[in-house]
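Lab notebook, design round three. We kept the backbone fixed and only want residue identities now. Task for the bench partner: fill in a sequence for the structure below.
Input C-alpha cells:
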C-alpha cells in the first residue's frame, strides 16, 4: 500500500507541475489488488475489499481485465493476441486527457485467484500508455525479486514502466520496507526547483527511510542475484512437474504457472469448468487436510496455489506437492 500511495500522489503531482492538473484519474483492471489504504483501494478491483469504503474512495476507472481460464474470446494465454485489451484501449483512448496513470500487476494477479495472463497484454498496455502520455505503474510488490523466474515480472514482456512499486522480497520478508522507483528522469526532475517554487514531493511516514530496513534490502539484493536466482530454474522445473501431475486429477480445472508461482483451480466439472458450489468450501477443506499432513496450503477459494520461499529445497518442494495431491484426493474422495 505504501509504495502504491506514493505512485498515486507522485503521478498526479507530476502532471499538476507540468501544467496538466486535469490529469487526475487512475485506471486499474478487474480483480486488481494494490493494497488497503484508501488510495490503493481506489485502484483495486476486488469488491470484497472496496464495498465498505467506496463512498470515500477516489473516482477511478476499473476496466475489464484478462480472464484466461474462462476467456470470453475462446483463447488461451499461450495463443492469444490479448483480445481482452479492448476495454482498456477504449477507456484510455476516450479519457486520455484526464487519466494520470494506469496501475497494473504484471502478469499475475495474486489476490485474484492467482490469475495469470499473457505478456501480450502488458506489451499493448505499455505501447498505448506511452502513445497517449499516460503513466504506467507496475505493482511488482508480490511478483518482483525473482518470484516469476526473472528479477521483475515486467521483463517477461520486455517493457519498462514509468513507476515500479516494490516491497516484500526486497528485504527477504524479514522487515517491512517498500520503495517506489521512477524510470524517467523527467518525472524525477519535475520535483526540483527553487525553494520558493514549492515543487517538492511532500510525503513521509513515521518510519519512512528506515535505515535498518534499507540496510537489509542492500544485503538481500546481491544474495538474490548471486545465490538465489541461479538455483531457480531447477526449482521451477520441479514445480512444473508437480503441477503436471496435479493436472491429471479429475477435478483439475486449470493449471497456472508463471516462474515459481503455481496454482491449480479445482472445479466440479472438468469438461465445462463449472465451479464447486461456494458453500462446499473445497479449498478450505484441502487446506485443513494438508495441515494434518504438515503443510500450509493457503487457498484462494478453490484455487490451491504454491508461493513458497525461493530458498525452499527441492526435497521439501516435492513433499509439498505430494501432500497437496493427497489432500485433494482425500477431500474430493478420488
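Proposed sequence:
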Amino acid at each position: 500500500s505504501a509504495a502504491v500511495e506514493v505512485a498515486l500522489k507522485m503521478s498526479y503531482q507530476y502532471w499538476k507541475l507540468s501544467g496538466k492538473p486535469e490529469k487526475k484519474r487512475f485506471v486499474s483492471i478487474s480483480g486488481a489488488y494494490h493494497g488497503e489504504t484508501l488510495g490503493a483501494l481506489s485502484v483495486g478491483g476486488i469488491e470484497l475489499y472496496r464495498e465498505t469504503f467506496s463512498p470515500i474512495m477516489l473516482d477511478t476507472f476499473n476496466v475489464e481485465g484478462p480472464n484466461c481460464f474462462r476467456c470470453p474470446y475462446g483463447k488461451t494465454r499461450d495463443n492469444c493476441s490479448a483480445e481482452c485489451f479492448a476495454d482498456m484501449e477504449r477507456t484510455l483512448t476516450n479519457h486520455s486527457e484526464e487519466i494520470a496513470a494506469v496501475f497494473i500487476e504484471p502478469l499475475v494477479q495474486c489476490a485474484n485467484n492467482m490469475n495469470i495472463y499473457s505478456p501480450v497484454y502488458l506489451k499493448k498496455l505499455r505501447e498505448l500508455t506511452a502513445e497517449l502520455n499516460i503513466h504506467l505503474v507496475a505493482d511488482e510488490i508480490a511478483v518482483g525479486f525473482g518470484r516469476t523466474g526473472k528479477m521483475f515480472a515486467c521483463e517477461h514482456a520486455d517493457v519498462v514502466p514509468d513507476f515500479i512499486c516494490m516491497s516484500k522480497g526486497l528485504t527477504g520478508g524479514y522487515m517491512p520496507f517498500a520503495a517506489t522507483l521512477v524510470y524517467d528522469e523527467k518525472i524525477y526532475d519535475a520535483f526540483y526547483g527553487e525553494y520558493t517554487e514549492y515543487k517538492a514531493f511532500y510525503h513521509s511516514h513515521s518510519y519512512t527511510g528506515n535505515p535498518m530496513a534499507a540496510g537489509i534490502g542492500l544485503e538481500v539484493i546481491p544474495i538474490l542475484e548471486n545465490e538465489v536466482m541461479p538455483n531457480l530454474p531447477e526449482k521451477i522445473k520441479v514445480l512444473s512437474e508437480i503441477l503436471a501431475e496435479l493436472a491429471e486429477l479429475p477435478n483439475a480445472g486449470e493449471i497456472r504457472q508463471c516462474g515459481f508461482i503455481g496454482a491449480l483451480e479445482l472445479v466440479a466439472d472438468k469438461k465445462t469448468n463449472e465451479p464447486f458450489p461456494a458453500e462446499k468450501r473445497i479449498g478450505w477443506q484441502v487446506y485443513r487436510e494438508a495441515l494434518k499432513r504438515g503443510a500450509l496450503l493457503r487457498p484462494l477459494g478453490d484455487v490451491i496455489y504454491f508461493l513458497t520461499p525461493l530458498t525452499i529445497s527441492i526435497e521439501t518442494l516435492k513433499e509439498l506437492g505430494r501432500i497437496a495431491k493427497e489432500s485433494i484426493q482425500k477431500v474430493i474422495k478420488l
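Keep this in mind before ordering anything: Residues 314-332 form the longest helix (19 residues).
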